[in-house]
Design goal:
Elements: E1 27-31, H1 36-48, E2 51-58, H2 71-85, E3 88-93, H3 95-111, H4 118-137, E4 142-144, E5 149-154, E6 157-162, H5 179-182, E7 185-186, H6 194-204, H7 225-230, E8 238-241, E9 247-251, E10 280-286, E11 291-296, E12 304-315, E13 324-329, E14 337-344, E15 347-357, E16 364-369, E17 372-379
Parallel strand pairs: 1-2, 1-4, 2-3, 4-7, 8-11
Antiparallel strand pairs: 5-6, 6-17, 8-9, 10-11, 12-15, 12-17, 13-14, 13-16, 14-15, 16-17
Helix pairs in contact: 1-2, 1-6, 3-4
């Protein structure tokens, strides 16, 4: 279902007239995070004539009152938005579900030397499962979030599409959503650029119109990652070797490093012929020997991969696509890379036209057919 945007392309001084009341009585529950994207989503739906209810999801509480990750401020912002829009807001605690379904898997993956993406699992298990179930109990027909993505229905099937703002597209994080979840989901800002979302918030008088976008995952926030992980996992220091097996430094625990990492290695560059220090990058982890392997140079062959295998798959259509030419992202902030997709047992293999940089076990390989997100799987070693 598409959403009209009554503020789009309106002069700032124009009085906004709500559209025809064509959906009165249809209840939509919006996940209000305290940020501007979800706030504008709720505002747009209210202007459409939906009966809008806001839900603030509390997903973490182990140290929620510290300086790094406080949901209290976000709830105050979400409540202020609800007051301006004129909707009810409910504070719901999903911390137990998050701990069992997301955080436990996060720790297992790091303990195994991989680099997981908990935001993907949070979307599948909390925001579009626990939250959706709660919304349905409230009598909602649909839920809505501030994600930059779109849903399209074709012949009774639902497609997940990229957000139109390519710099903000979040379909990568939503690739595990199912037909049942997508059929109940609206992404009101998915057809808008971020600049227009902020402009709408300003014109509508939303109190968080200029609020800075959040970064990272809540339970880590802006705190040093090593400080956080040390509280949950025992780490064994060890040797850092180069690509010839020579020791070049010491690591503080393999879980603290990810492939392609440059900062925080604690080893200086070796001067090349031009007298410049060539930076080091994490290239491999040897769990059996507790050795971290680092190489010099961004284009070192050990940092480049022409193929990968993924498992733990999820497909938006309910089944994998046929083998053939598609495009994929092996990490969020990369351009779609042309590849050949081949089903392989309980997973799939991808062969890339151009080698991909720092393909990382634990991250997700997500498949695309043009603007359509097909699904994906977790990258293996």
């Amino acid at each position: 279902m598409s959403i009209d945007h009554p503020l789009t392309a309106q002069p700032a001084a124009t009085r906004i007239i709500p559209p025809v009341d064509k959906v009165r009585g249809e209840r939509v529950v919006v996940g209000l995070s305290g940020g501007v994207d979800s706030a504008v989503s709720a505002w747009l739906l209210k202007q459409q004539g939906y009966e809008v209810v806001g839900i603030f999801m509390k997903n973490w509480e182990a140290d929620d009152d510290d300086a790094y990750c406080s949901s209290n401020e976000d709830f105050v912002d979400a409540a202020a938005v609800a007051d301006v829009i004129g909707i009810e807001i409910e504070h719901v605690n999903f911390a137990a579900e998050y701990r069992d379904r997301v955080f436990a898997e996060f720790l297992r993956e790091y303990a195994a030397g991989r680099t997981p993406n908990p935001d993907i699992l949070c979307n599948a298990e909390i925001k579009f499962k626990a939250f959706l179930d709660h919304a349905l109990r409230l009598g909602a027909t649909k839920i809505a979030t501030g994600h930059y993505a779109r849903v399209r229905e074709r012949a009774g099937r639902f497609e997940l599409l990229k957000g139109l703002d390519a710099t903000k597209d979040q379909s990568y994080f939503l690739h595990r959503l199912t037909q049942a979840q997508l059929s109940r989901t609206l992404f009101p800002v998915g057809e808008l650029p971020k600049t227009e979302v902020r402009a709408i918030a300003e014109r509508a008088g939303l109190p968080n119109a200029r609020k800075k976008d959040s970064t990272g995952i809540c339970f880590i926030g802006e705190r040093p990652f090593r400080e956080f992980l040390n509280r949950w996992l025992h780490q064994q220091p060890g040797v850092i070797e180069d690509d010839r097996g020579r020791p070049v430094g010491r690591h503080v625990g393999l879980s603290f490093y990810t492939l392609g990492q440059r900062q925080g290695l604690g080893i200086g560059g070796v001067k090349s012929g031009g007298g410049e220090h060539v930076p080091w990058y994490v290239a491999r982890k040897d769990l059996d020997r507790n050795v971290l392997v680092a190489v010099q140079g961004h284009e070192h062959p050990w940092l480049l991969s022409s193929e990968l295998r993924a498992a733990d798959c999820s497909w938006v259509a309910g089944a994998p696509p046929a083998g053939g030419a598609l495009a994929a992202k092996a990490r969020y902030r990369q351009a779609d890379a042309p590849c050949r997709f081949e089903p392989d047992g309980d997973g799939f293999r991808l062969s890339f036209e151009q080698p991909q940089w720092a393909v990382t076990p634990g991250q997700s390989a997500v498949l695309y057919d043009g603007e359509i997100c097909l699904g994906g799987g977790v990258i293996g070693a």
